[in-house]
């Protein structure tokens, strides 16, 4: 009996909390960023550590007791703040991601390229455990790319994900009636099989997006024709394989990437390394989650769905096996 009483009480509590938009048990995701020094104490310039974790998306996440802005929002907001700080001379982009949507990956690429052009700040990408597909795409603006010895990277290509539920609906006796103004208006619908013409159109779309990706790799990385042909198979590579192909410049750890950024910017090894946090953490290190994650975790109810296959039809710069992390 006690369980049946507690459940309505919990639901009522959640409803009350939802009505208080400014309330957050675990930190306010709308709080202003605060700069936190992670290491160093010297003067003459700073290194900004900017983290990209998980799926790269233009859409934020909402939970029962917290919200988290999208990756695009996080990166754009931090770069906007960084533009105001003339002491920032180098940026280390820490990437641990299987990729994400084509548009989100491309917007972050554009934001980083614009920031570099406007400020002259040197950028080093530090690839962590996984920096595949869109995770590698957003690293392309970097002046140097450093992969950890155990990094999995590459997957330079596009996949068009299109969920299908038509068979399931048939089994349970449910159908969908559609009125459309053109033959391809509902292209990508999960409620029916694709036609041959639709498959051709999707293949053409995938090819165009893939050519943009490989074109940017060719522009930024100057690979040999043989290396580019290997990379264009869209397979993933170990750190050493990526270095041999020219996808990355060096193999090392995060401290090595920071040292490279300091060197490129003409800074001393004692120059401060800073990060932007919604809620600065005590005893902060380089390896803590990104700016939003500290304010967004934990959730009251964690269903473990963050790593599942995206359910929206469309093209992705993503390595799908990486979603199970």
Explain what you see.
The protein has a domain at 25-153 and 236-298 and 307-324: 2-enoyl-CoA Hydratase, Chain A, domain 1 (Alpha-Beta Complex). It is 35% helix and 21% strand. The chain is built from ten helices and 14 strands. The protein has helices at residues 2-19, 71-83, 102-119, 134-137, 166-172, 196-221, 225-231, 239-245, 254-264, 293-296; strands spanning 34-39, 46-53, 61-62, 67-68, 88-97, 99-101, 122-132, 144-147, 152-154, 159-161, 236-238, 250-251, 273-277, 314-318. The strands form three sheets. Strands 1, 2, 5, 7, 8, 9, 11, 12 and 13 form a nine-stranded mixed sheet that branches. Helix 2 (71-83) runs parallel beside helix 3 (102-119). The longest helix is centred in the middle third of the chain and has 26 residues, at 196-221.
| CATH architecture field of the domain at 25-153 and 236-298 and 307-324 | Alpha-Beta Complex
Largest sheet: 9 strands, mixed
The CATH class assignment of the domain at 25-153 and 236-298 and 307-324 is Alpha Beta
Give the number of DSSP strands.
14
The CATH topology of the domain at 25-153 and 236-298 and 307-324 comes to 2-enoyl-CoA Hydratase, Chain A, domain 1
Question: Strand percentage, roughly?
Answer: 15-25%
Element layout with pairings:
Layout lengths: L1 H18 L14 E6 L6 E8 L7 E2 L4 E2 L2 H13 L4 E10 L1 E3 H18 L2 E11 L1 H4 L6 E4 L4 E3 L4 E3 L4 H7 L23 H26 L3 H7 L4 E3 H7 L4 E2 L2 H11 L8 E5 L15 H4 L17 E5 L7
Parallel strand pairs: 2-5, 2-13, 5-7, 7-8, 7-9, 8-12
Antiparallel strand pairs: 1-13, 3-4, 6-14, 9-11, 10-14
Helix pairs in contact: 2-3
């Amino acid at each position: 009996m006690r369980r049946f009483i507690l459940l309505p009480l919990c639901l009522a509590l959640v409803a009350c909390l939802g009505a208080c938009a400014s309330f957050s048990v675990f930190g306010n995701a709308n709080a202003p960023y605060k700069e936190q020094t992670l290491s160093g104490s010297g003067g003459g310039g700073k290194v900004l550590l900017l983290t990209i974790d998980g799926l790269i998306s233009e859409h934020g996440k909402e939970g029962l007791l917290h919200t988290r802005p999208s990756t695009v929002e996080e990166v754009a907001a931090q770069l906007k703040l960084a533009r105001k700080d003339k002491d920032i001379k180098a940026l280390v982009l820490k990437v641990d991601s299987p990729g994400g949507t084509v548009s989100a990956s491309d917007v972050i690429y554009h934001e980083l390229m614009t920031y570099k052009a406007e400020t002259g700040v040197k950028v080093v990408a530090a690839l962590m455990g996984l920096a595949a597909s869109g995770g590698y795409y957003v690293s392309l603006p970097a002046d140097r790319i450093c992969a950890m010895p155990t990094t999995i990277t590459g997957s330079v290509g596009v996949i068009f994900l299109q969920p299908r539920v038509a068979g399931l609906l048939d089994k349970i006796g449910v159908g969908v009636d559609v009125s459309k103004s053109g033959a391809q208006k509902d292209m990508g619908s999960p409620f029916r099989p694709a036609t041959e013409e639709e498959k051709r159109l999707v293949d053409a779309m995938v090819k165009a997006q893939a050519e943009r990706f490989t074109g940017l790799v060719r522009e930024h990385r100057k690979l040999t024709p043989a290396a580019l042909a290997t990379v264009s198979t869209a397979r993933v590579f170990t750190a050493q394989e990526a270095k041999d192909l020219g996808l990355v410049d060096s193999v090392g750890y995060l401290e090595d990437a920071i040292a490279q950024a300091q060197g490129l910017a003409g800074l001393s090894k004692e120059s401060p390394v800073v990060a932007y946090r919604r809620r600065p953490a005590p005893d902060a290190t380089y390896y803590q989650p990104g700016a939003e994650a500290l304010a967004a975790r934990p959730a009251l109810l964690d269903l473990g769905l963050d790593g599942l296959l995206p359910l929206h039809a469309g093209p992705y710069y993503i390595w799908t096996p990486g979603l199970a992390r």
